[in-house]
Amino acid sequence: MKKKTYYLKTEDDSLCDLKLSKLLCPVCNGRYNHKTRIVKRSGHDNYQAWKGRGNLIEIFMHGECGHNWSLSIGFHKGESFIFCKQTRKR
Fold this sequence. Notes:
6 strands
């Protein structure tokens, strides 16, 4: 089964605006999401933490909609990558 790709969504479809944007569930656009834990992973520059090289910060979320997902920021040589993915149920 091919894994479905989910895209990071905000209430107004902007991430880098000077105003606040509400983060939405990437599966159903649910507005009410709660942080469950934050994990920092060391990638040791060899793809151990994520698909890219370098370290990763992962924020696990649980939506009142019932979906679980994570917001991740990967770091490598001065570049930062932000992405989200659906995770397993708690």
